Amino acid sequence: MRNYISAAAFAALLSPPVLALYERNYHSTSLAIQPLNILERAASYDPNNTTLFLVCPQGEVVSQPAPTIYDSHGELVWASPNIGLCDDLNYQTYNGQGYLTMWVGSGNGATGLQTGSGTAIMLNSNYEIVQNVSAVNPGLTDLHEFHIVQPENRTALVTAFNPIPLDLTSVGGLANGWYLNSIIQEVDIATGRILFNWTSVDHIALAESYNNISVTGEGTNSSFAWDPVHINSIDKDREGNYLISARNCQTIYKLDKNGTIIWRLGGKTSDFKAQGEGDTQFHWQHHVRWREDETQISVFDDGAGVLDTTVVIDETVATGKYLELDQTTMTVSLVQRYFPTLNTGPSFAEGSIEPYGNTVIVGYGSNPWVTAHDLDSGDVLFSAVIGPNNSSLWLGGISNYRVFQTSTLEFVGHPTQPPAVAISDGDVYVSWNGATHVSSYTLLTGSTASTVTKKVTSVVKTGFETKMSMLGGDAFISVTALAANGTTLGKSAVYRTSDGSIVSR
Ligand SMILES: *[C@@H]1O[C@H](CO)[C@@H](O)[C@H](O)[C@H]1NC(C)=O
Ligand SMILES: *[C@@H]1O[C@H](CO)[C@@H](O)[C@H](O)[C@H]1NC(C)=O
Ligand SMILES: *[C@@H]1O[C@H](CO)[C@@H](O)[C@H](O)[C@H]1NC(C)=O
Ligand SMILES: *[C@@H]1O[C@H](CO)[C@@H](O)[C@H](O)[C@H]1NC(C)=O
Ligand SMILES: *[C@@H]1O[C@H](CO)[C@@H](O)[C@H](O)[C@H]1NC(C)=O
Ligand SMILES: *[C@@H]1O[C@H](CO)[C@@H](O)[C@H](O)[C@H]1NC(C)=O
Ligand SMILES: *[C@@H]1O[C@H](CO)[C@@H](O)[C@H](O)[C@H]1NC(C)=O
Ligand SMILES: *[C@@H]1O[C@H](CO)[C@@H](O)[C@H](O)[C@H]1NC(C)=O
Ligand SMILES: *[C@@H]1O[C@H](CO)[C@@H](O)[C@H](O)[C@H]1NC(C)=O
Ligand SMILES: *[C@@H]1O[C@H](CO)[C@@H](O)[C@H](O)[C@H]1NC(C)=O
Ligand SMILES: *[C@@H]1O[C@H](CO)[C@@H](O)[C@H](O)[C@H]1NC(C)=O
């Protein structure tokens, strides 16, 4: 049953930003981060500690929004000190090489109520920005999609939104109304050339939208344009056709490479008939991708939506789903529904579902939850929340657009900055933001700044920041970072023990 909540009632759900108190601080760096709080972790999950989760937490209580990597014990691995607000942090292959990719810019990325204006960027394993990718004319690149497309991995699919004047009387709006045009583009990454340019106004009927103008009042001017379609993901199949998710039509569209709509799944005029017992419906969905040799799709079924300031709740729980599509008989059936266990509830925006090996990672978007499931059985192997237990935008807190996974077997982060050291109360604290393969640290000392060679102690890395006793330390110290095989990966500056100041690099 659909349930509308007024803007005032919705605002009342948003409690004061007390969650900020939960931020974690360190001695050796000024980073302040909401930790990944582990709720469940099966003994069999990630036994070799290779998993890395890629996220962009943000919201009122996140004082330093940043592209962020956590390990599966909830420890910080990397948070960019300078990139700021981002969405959609991922690890993608371009031209045979792996890159960290994300959207950066401005806009209300925190709630997904609006679209963002910015650019997509690509970082190498030294965390240096090596490429910008933008949708061009009209508008800037929106936050919702930056998808490097297989098999060539040389082009990217991006979204853009652009308000245009349009007669909206057929849907209860103004004759001189404004329409927020959903645009998708395929961009050649190296040259910036636009290879495909498609806009919703040319193809999707106004009546397909669930964004009811009588409820939202949108469309009165260009900065309050009616957002009837709201494309939030794009995929491409091996024949070159596109698969797009239009949240506000609650419809997934397949487009021919010539732009014609081939079929609709879901929404008011679905071309598919449901088969079997499973619930194949989705509401306000995100992150639609072809899976299993293009016989199935995965979709994050939010279950709720926000239209301007109106919250619409269609389901009691957000879930990731795999649906099997038979494009000959035009039938759809549920393959698997990935239910969360501890934190449950609808998400009103954002979210993702992505397989990794024999697991499926679900990100709950406006609820900053992460679950990892067995791909086949759907069993929860791991669940966590960014920030404190029960953190949710429903309760005033944190959101995270999508969650992706990589592993230390494929991503080797090697920062250009050296390990950072702080000295406090006879202890040495060391961290190395972004270094993925440090196994231990060795403390070296000397009586002069140029003779810091005597080994004091070696300790196993215990998390983002490792504490060592300075007992036995002389006037100057430095710390080296070592890999499990004993290789020295990096060395800190030399520090003066009397006041903790840096003497030399
Ligand atoms: C969060 O919930 C888990 C599972 O109920 C519990 O073990 C843990 O102590 C809680 N953590 C905090 C910080 O409340
Ligand atoms: C963990 O590492 C060991 C030793 O390298 C390897 O044999 C094993 O397959 C790994 N396990 C997983 C689940 O990756
Ligand atoms: C994985 O990390 C946990 C927690 O830090 C640790 O107890 C365990 O020994 C680690 N496992 C391996 C194989 O390093
Ligand atoms: C494209 O990227 C995918 C996923 O990372 C990878 O499996 C594939 O090998 C890449 N193809 C090329 C030609 O680099
Ligand atoms: C990315 O774009 C910005 C702004 O246009 C520019 O300053 C920067 O040099 C670009 N970086 C790369 C690597 O292209
Ligand atoms: C993309 O299409 C829009 C709408 O038709 C048009 O205004 C714009 O100029 C096109 N952009 C490019 C780069 O072709
Ligand atoms: C839009 O909302 C109005 C007011 O709640 C309602 O009367 C009308 O039936 C709705 N229209 C559609 C198409 O749902
Ligand atoms: C656009 O309309 C909204 C809603 O009525 C209003 O709050 C806003 O001030 C208008 N903006 C402009 C530029 O007229
Ligand atoms: C465009 O694609 C549609 C759907 O596949 C097809 O029916 C139509 O013939 C195509 N048009 C052209 C001009 O190729
Ligand atoms: C979430 O909050 C509810 C109500 O306060 C509580 O019963 C539940 O245990 C909490 N969940 C976790 C994971 O802490
Ligand atoms: C030692 O480990 C590091 C980090 O994993 C790796 O880069 C390096 O190649 C390894 N060296 C040897 C000799 O195996």
Automatic annotation (TrEMBL):
Asked if the keyword Signal belongs to this entry, the reply reads yes
- Pfam families in alphabetical order: Arylsulfotran_2 (PF14269)
Looking up InterPro entries in the UniProt record yields: Arylsulfate_ST (IPR053143), ASST-like (IPR039535), Quinoprotein_ADH-like_sf (IPR011047)
Record keywords, A-Z: Signal
How far does the signal peptide extend, from start to end residue?
A: 1-20
* Protein's recorded name: Arylsulfotransferase
Per the UniProt record, the source organism is Mycena venus
| Upper classification of the organism | Eukaryota, Fungi, Dikarya, Basidiomycota, Agaricomycotina
